[in-house]
Amino acid sequence: MDLTSLFKLSYGLYIVSSTDGEKHGGCIVNTVTQVTAEPVKLVVAVHKDNVTTSMIEKSGKFCVCVLNETAPMELIGRFGFKTSRDIDKFDGIEYKVDKNGLYYPAQEVAAVVSCNVLEKVDLGTHILFVAQACDAFTVNDQPVLTYAYYHSVKKGRTPPKASSYQKPQKKSGFKCTVCGYIYEGDTLPEDYVCPVCGVAANMFEKL
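Structure tokens predicted for Flavin reductase (207 residues):
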């Protein structure tokens, strides 16, 4: 089976956030889909190991943020390659609160949808949440970030816990041991900083 054929499927890139009542968290996903119009229902798949998943299960609600094309890699790295077990992902950034009391980034967001979970389905590695929207609004009319744009223009990588993750092919260069970003070249500058997760050059390993 040619798994690269799945790259032809169209995806967006979103931040899904939730809470456990004591702290707020969120993660990057590319698996948000509207499935009905009346009432508005959505589905989202989140990896079982994500802290966000347990927050959604506990609270029964989540917030979906549609990202702009201009969303910086630092924001994607914060929510996509770091864990809420170790950091407060909303610390140090501007955020707002949705109808359900959930935090979401205030910058680089095109639209926000607040959801209440109706049911969940165990998919093995992921949990599929079926939810009904209780609020939705547009923030701006900028082009939204697609997964194709993220890979082709921003040169972003897919986190191992993502639904569409595939093991990378061997390349010459240096690989970030934190997020998997690959710097192509024979020499890695000493002052180089990972554009995705922000770690220094000493956290890279030669391929």
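The CA atoms of residues 7 and 47 lie 19 Å apart.
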